[in-house]
Amino acid sequence: MSSPRRRHCRRSPAASPLEDDDLLSEILLRLPPQPSALPRASAVCKRWRGLVCDPRFRRRFRLRHRRFRLRHRRNPPLLGFFNRFDRLSFQPTLDAPDRLPLGPFPFQRDDGDYFVSLGCRHGLLLVFLPGILEVLVWDPVTGDRHRVAVPPVVAERAAKIGVGGAVYRPPGDVQHFQVVLAVTDDHGAQPRRALACGYSSKTGVWGSLISTPLPYQGHGSQFSAIVCAEDAVLAGDSLYWPLAGKLNGILEFDLEKQRLAVIRVPVDMWGKRERNGFKLVRAEGGVLGFLFISHSDCCAAQLWKRITGCDGVASWVLARTIQLDKLLSLKPEEKGGIEMVGFAQDNYVLLLRTVIGLFMIHLESLKFKKLSNTTTVSRYFPFESVYTAVTGIGGRNDASDVNAQ
């Protein structure tokens, strides 16, 4: 009598816990946030594919890994870089099987051709639309888009002289985002000043306009002081942009205190006659830093850090110098034209353009990898995010995934 019962148990669908869809979904949610994870799971069987193709599951997968990253300070995968000078074309960085192909995130526009990309952070990309004076926040993975009208005072200066911007997710919040825009105002008889204001997707409104005086600096430039439209650095509780034109320095926006300030630097950031290289970074320990390459020594990258002493006074210190020609084993004829063209803050990776191609360097380990043979002058924004396509690596998401977040 016992044998038939044992055979019946083996044939019963309830014999395996994995037959429970809810339990299996909880297990699949714990797959690593690598691009190959969900496509591999979807290939196991029709049932698994049905679970991971569900837009609700993919949304939970993204939110879970964002929360896990915030809680445990884990870095998201560096999927690649967006080329801001080539209509946001995509340069992948990962190796197989996680490598995405070229062009998995087409940036489609329906309101004109001209736009200015301002930065990328926390899986979101920020774009300024000068023709209609709006900013666009775009999630390339889900296709989700939010367009926000720019406040009039900022819009006026942004259209005339340019604007710096940043998008980020507040600490502990994995669903909402905030935008900060920064401009300078030093024309005519008005006081020279920098302006900034922030927007919250949670409230749907812009905050108060914040300003700070711009110190005079006889830099010899014919251009007004401007906030560079580069990817801002988020270090501690502040955002930072490099300033250019008549003023050599860094603009700081303290998110906690809602205060602007200008920080001087100990080097000639851009050079008066010869072009120097300058790139803001988040240095070891999460503090503000910058990389500097002098035209006179284009193979040496100096890493400076801003530290605060026990007396509360902040100062710059030279942390180390990286000999790029030796690191990359460049031949004498290959040493000229080294340029810093991008920086991934979470993964601490620098993107370099040389006369023989595009390289990325991990600044802590100094390990490097050649990404391509391109020598075209450009600027790149890093894309550090969780990728949830299940139709294959680099396959376009199903329509049901758009706006799932």
TrEMBL record:
Ranges where the F-box domain occurs:
21-59
Annotated PANTHER family = F-BOX DOMAIN-CONTAINING PROTEIN (PTHR32133:SF320), OS07G0120400 PROTEIN (PTHR32133)
> What start and end residues bound the annotated signal peptide?
none
Spell out the InterPro entries in the cross-references. AT5G49610-like_b-prop, F-box-like_dom_sf, F-box_dom
Tell me what organism the protein belongs to. Triticum urartu
Domain F-box protein AT5G49610-like beta-propeller stretches: 119-377
Please give the name of this protein: F-box domain-containing protein
Instruction: Read off the Pfam families from this record.
Output: Beta-prop_AT5G49610-like (PF23635), F-box (PF00646)
